[in-house]
Amino acid sequence: MSNPYLLLTPGPLSTTSTVKEAMLKDWCTWDHEYKAIVEQIRLQLLEVGCASKEHYTALFMQGSGTFGIEATIGSVIPSNGKLLILQNGAYGKRIEEIANVLKIPHLSLVFEANTQVDPQAVERKLVEDKAITHVAMVHCETTTGILNPLEAVMDVIKRNNRIAIIDAMSSFGGIPIEVEQLQIDFIISSANKCIQGVPGFSFILCKRDELIKCKGKARSLSLDLYDQWETMEKDAGKWRFTSPTHVVHAFAQALKELDEEGGVEARHARYRTNQQIVVEELTQAGFTAYLPRELQSPFITTFLYPTHIPFAFEHFYNFLKSAGFVIYPGKLTDANVFRIGNIGDVHAKDMERLSEQILRYVGVTKYEN
After folding, report:
1. pTM for this model (two decimals)
2. Which of 6, 264, 289, 326 has CA 20 to 30 A from 193's CA?
């Protein structure tokens, strides 16, 4: 059965038929073959993140990406710790909401949605407030598609001897990230993002010596990072509670396909091409990207509502859906915008077809002067 439309969203996203086919069998969570697949995935994730198994480990958490973020925030910060949250969008704000619910001492350094996190401002805050023990930042803020300066911010965090928690939900596997070289302590992503699997679990790459310090600190039974890891270590590949077996097999296939494509660099190049086509073609159609090119990630692009034509998002959305494309509504409160994702099993020819439909929507064709 073919898909009725292509998902141009930041996840869930369109997957290959072979990833879908991997879910057609049922699996036992205790089976040694299944657990061996889990262990293999853990090692492969370290390879994707350029992290050694001597200093890093990978583990899974059932649920969406937010489950992984909450598990990390709730497990690694001690009762006498304090979290600095770097915000320039809704997902940084969500980390603040998690800290509020878990009653973790924190403060937020807030930047405009169209402005990158400023490493110098981060350093000033770390120097000023010695009580801060941990810093959390979203790498690609999918509110807008802005890419925050990971290397520069990590340099500041480590120079000031703090622990780094990086939300790489929409970037891990889609852009090279050298986790060990950057000394990232905890980095979180999800099965249904740039690895191109399906929803069902998040994963966390952890610096081993920092994860070990988390024993007994968790503020939740099921979202306990250390206990989840300890179970996987002691009974190789076993999850503490029922694991999403079908999703795991789909993810194993997705990792195989990432390698066959040429790895993260090749996937990054494809996503970047997708994004460039969308921006160039929509600019021709009279749309304006919310971010300047130099701040834009290759994962999702935010566009302002056009003013040169009558425009209602629901009408635009339904028009594109009937043509075989699903896009995303905006997530800004101070501007009317919509978003187009560039990740998943999506290629240049798909973006060209999308562009043709958008040009058709505004009443022009690619061939008119």
Report:
1. 0.95
2. 289
